[in-house]
Amino acid sequence: GDSWGIFTFLCAALCQLPALPALNCTEELGTSQSIQKTYDLTRYLEHQLRTLAGTYLNYLGPPFNEPDFNPPRLARAERVPSATVDLDLWRGLTDNARLAANYRAYSRLLCYLRALDGQAATADLRHRLGHFCSSLQGLVLSIAGVMSSLGYPLPVGPVGPPTGPPSSLVVAPNDFLKKMDDFWLLKELQTWLWRSAKDFNRLKKKVPPAVVTLRLEARGF
User: Fold this and answer.
1) Taking 80 as the threshold, does the pLDDT of residue 48 lie above it?
2) Is 173 helix (H, G, I), strand (E, B) or coil?
3) Distance separating alpha carbons of residues 39 and 19, to the nearest angstrom
4) Any idea what the CATH number is for the domain that residue 156 is in?
5) What integer pLDDT is reported at residue 76 of this predicted model?
6) List of long-range contacts for 185-190, beta carbons under 8 Å, 24+ apart
7) DSSP letter at 64?
8) What is the mean pLDDT of residues 17-38?
C-alpha cells in the first residue's frame, strides 16, 4: 500500500546519504571540551600525587613520613609558589587572573619536580617522578589551551624558578633542610591541584557544552 511505498522511498533515500559529498557532520571542539579535559587532568594528578607523595615521604624518612608532621614554612620554601591564598580573595579574581596564576605556578612547580627527579636515589622513585612530571607538563599545556580558547594571552616573562636554575631549590645547607624543601614542594602541589580542580569545575559550568551541527552545502544545484 501507500505506507509500504513511503517506507521503501525513505530507505532508498537514507542509503544515498553517504554518497552526498556536501553533507558534513562537524563537532565544534572548543572551550568547554578543553576545560573538561583540564579538569579531568587535575583530578588524575591529585590521585597520582597521593601515591607519589606517600612513596617520596617514606623515602625521606621520619619525621617527614609521620601523619602529624606539620612544620612551619621556612623562608627557603617561600620560593615555591604558595596556594595558601584567602579563598574569598582567590574567588574574587577574574577567570583570566586565576588561569594565569595556575599557569605560572605549575610551570615553576614542574621545574622543581624535575630537580627532584634528578636527585632521587632509587630507580623506582625516579620513574614515578618522571611519569608525574610528564603528566604535569600536560596540565601546563592544557591550561595554555584553555586560556587560548577563551582569548586570554599567556603570562609574559619567565615562569620558572625566580632565583636561578631549578637546582637552586635543592641546594640546602644540610640534609634536613633539603628534605624540608622537598616536603613543602609536595604539600603546596597537593593544595594547588585541589584548588585547581575546583576552579575548572566552576569554569566549565560557565561555558556551554560543545554543539554537534550538521552542515549541508549544496553543490552543483
Assistant:
1) yes
2) coil
3) 40
4) 1.20.1250.10
5) 64
6) 185/77, 185/80, 185/109, 185/112, 185/113, 185/116, 186/49, 186/52, 186/53, 186/56, 186/57, 188/80, 188/81, 188/82, 188/83, 188/109, 189/49, 189/109, 189/113, 190/46, 190/49, 190/53
7) T
8) 59
Q: What are phi and psi of 166, to 5 degrees?
A: -55, -30
Asked, for residue 166, whether it belongs to a domain, the answer is no
The answer to the question of residue 80 being in a domain is: yes
* CB contact at 8 A, 189 and 49: yes
Count the domains in the chain. Answer: 1
Please state whether beta strands 212-216 and 23-27 pair in parallel, antiparallel, or not at all (unpaired).
Answer: antiparallel
Structural domain including 100 reads 29-160+173-206
- Return the amino acid letter for 160: G
**Is residue 203 within 8 Å of residue 91, measured between CB atoms?**
no
Instruction: Specify which residues 212 forms β-bridges with.
Output: 27
Residue 95 and residue 90: Cα distance in Å, rounded? 10
> pLDDT tens for residues 96-131?
999 999 999 999 999 999 888 777 778 888 899 999
* Cis peptide, bond prior to residue 72, ω within 30 of zero: no
